[in-house]
Amino acid sequence: MMDSQENILQQEETKEVIQEAAAPEVVNEETAPAAEEQPRKVYETKAEVLKRVQDIAHGDETPQKDEVDYLKTAFYKLHIAEREAKLKAYLEAGGDPEQYQVTPDELEEHFKAEMGIIKEKRAQIMKEQEAEKQENLAKKLSIIDQIKAMITTPEEANKSYQEFKSLQQQWREIKAVPAEKASELWRNYQLYVEQFYDMLRLNSEAREYDFKKNLELKTALCEAAEKLADEEDVISAFHQLQKLHQEYREIGPVAKEQREEIWNRFKAASTVINKRHQQHFEGVRAKEEDNLARKTALCEKVEAIAAEENKGSGDWEKHTKEIIDIQAEWKTIGFAPQKMNVKIFERFRAACDDFFGRKAEYFKGLKNTFKENAEKKRDLIEKAKALQDSTDWKSTSDKLVALQKEWKTIGVVPKKLGDQLWNEFLGACNKFFEARNAAGAGQRSEEHGNLEKKRDIISKLKAVAEEAGDNIQEKVQSLVEEYQAVGHVPFKDKDKLYEEYHAVLDKLYKDLNISVAKRRLNNFKQNLKQVAERGGNALDNERARLFRQYEALKQEIQTYENNLGFLNVSSKKGNSLIDEMNRKVQKLKDDMNLVREKIKAIDAENKD
Q1: Are 521 and 598 in contact (CB under 8 A)?
Q2: How far apart are the C-alpha atoms of 222 and 233, rounded to whole Å?
Q3: Given pLDDT bands bounded at 50, 70 and 90, which one contains residue 536?
Q4: Nearest Cα to 330, choosing from 304, 358, 302?
Q5: Cβ(277)–Cβ(325) under 8 Å?
Q6: Host H or E run for residue 96
Q7: Tens digit of each residue's pLDDT (9 = 90 or more) over 239-270
Q8: What are phi and psi of 414, to 5 degrees?
């Protein structure tokens, strides 16, 4: 009768043990999501990446696929950036894009060799791990068979209890099995363990001892789980928790009245760790999404710059600097989400490649133009040198002046070469003219007389500049005609006299333009009333005519200023053309301002 009662009690306890074993856990290795990748180290040089690859290839650690893929991406990102920088430097130095060759990279060859070793190492490790998993599967199947053999009668189960506990310990010590077999294997193991407990007959003393021992073990696991809340490394804490869960479910039951309490304590500690783990990766994902948004914005900036029209070398260099600044900013931004990281980089690189490819084509064409212009200028230098020793003063002077005019029609070349060619050309011209001047020493007396006449005219112009009256313009025009009628002056005084003459003339013209503009504007305003009295659209028609005149002047100014940008004259003798063009531009600007004031006057009249 006693044995029967104890048997009934044992069966009830065993059912509770089975229920606890089958209870769902907060997290376990089978149901837990795979741990996500931690933020990676940022490598600054290819040598740093290679050093890490060599450590993995020749060290004892197991190569991790995520890290190996990351190292490969990091190496070639640096490698491509370095190659593009070399190409840029080559092109900026005037190199021919068609002649550029990519030089072999010794570091890349070493990197490929070490990655080959890692690949072989990983393949061997995978092979060994698979063999070990198959071996572990066989061992666990054998344990299941042995437990199954013990489930015959309650007496046999009772006798085999110690052996059963030993098999359970062996089961815990055996590690991974093939993933596709793990769930089925665990269900079979649990099934026969439950059946064994159904057969098990333990006396009350042994059962209490077992419960007490299991409670101590589970309490220790609770304490360990609670301490993980203070672990700074969230990822490490999460992985340690998985091991604790594995140990917890391998431990047998505790007394009925303590089971729920101990389980709730362990579950509560697990919830803290799991929540920290979840929050950590939510932060990582949010940061990656922010990085993606920032990188997308940079892609749009580069694409917008690449779409802009480049009217000359200045625009290309300006946009190049902007893109290089954007590339530098790109390097400061971390990874985007894994599924988009490669795509967003490819988009960014494609936009950069498009811009720099078209830039290379532009400068290739510009280089050909420079080459043609340089050849034309060298041809003129040869012609000037052929004339530099001539004594046919009049004819040769005309020829050299013609050559100088032709020189100005030739387009630009790189500044350094342009200065060199100009100095060579100017040297040949100067040699002839200096010889001609030396031979024409008899003319110096006349030239000195002309110098005095021109200085006297300049003095008169300065005096006119201080006068006030209505006939100033006629006086200035008369003196200008008188000045132009005077012959040559000594060569050494020519430039200084030229500057002095045009300085006072520019001041006079500026003052005259202002005075005339004011008078014209006043007359125009007085006539507006008469125009307005015509009725209809008279004022609007006049405004439209003035606006067309304003746009025409604006276009003409722009044309002059563009032409000035192509002039590259480094000698005093060549400055006269630039000065004359600058005066024309200023005159046009004054006229444009006058037209603008007239339009404002019409607008004011319309408003009234």
Answers
A1: yes
A2: 19
A3: low
A4: 302
A5: no
A6: none
A7: 999 888 888 878 878 887 888 898 999 999 89
A8: -50, 140
Is 232 buried (19+), middle (13-18) or exposed (0-12) by CB count in 10 A? Answer: exposed
Contacts of 403 (CB under 8 A, 6+ apart): 380, 383, 384, 429
Query: Model pTM greater than 0.70?
Result: no
pLDDT digits (tens, 9 = 90+) for 23-45: 333 333 333 334 444 567 888 88
167-192 exposure pattern, b = at least 16 Cβ within 10 A, e = fewer = bbeebeeeeebeeeebeebeebbeeb
Query: Which of 233, 232, 218, 230 shows the shortest CA–CA distance to 267?
Result: 218
Q: Per-residue pLDDT for 579 more than 50?
A: yes
Does residue 548 register a pLDDT over 70?
yes
CA neighbours closer than 13 Å in the CB half-sphere of residue 323: 28
**Exposure b/e, 205-223, CB count within 10 A at least 16 = b:** eebeebbeebbebbeebbe
At residue 92, what is the residue type? E
CB 539 within 8 A of CB 605: yes
Please count the other Cβ atoms lying within 10 Å of the Cβ belonging to residue 309: 5
Structure tokens at 443: 């003319």
Residue 108 has pLDDT above 80, yes or no: yes
CB atoms inside a 10 Å sphere around CB 291:
18
Residue 349's nearest CA partner among 91, 81, 97 is: 81
Helix or strand or coil: residue 344?
helix
Alpha-carbon span 140 to 129, nearest angstrom: 16
| Sequence-ordered list of residues with C-beta below 8 angstroms from that of 552, at least 6 positions apart, any chain | none
Residue 311 has pLDDT above 80, yes or no: no
- Pair of tokens at residue 206: 């042994």
> Would you state the structure tokens that stand for residue 404, as one six-digit string?
């100088």
Residues 589/557, Cβ–Cβ less than 8 Å: yes
pLDDT number for residue 155: 66
- The alpha helices in 308-337, defined as continuous H runs, are 313-331
Cβ burial 348-380 (10 Å sphere, 16+ → b, else e): bbebbeebbeebbeebeeebeebeebbebbeeb
The position carrying tokens 């070493």 is 110
Structure tokens belonging to residue 509? 């013209």
In which element (H, E) is residue 497 found? Answer: helix 491-533
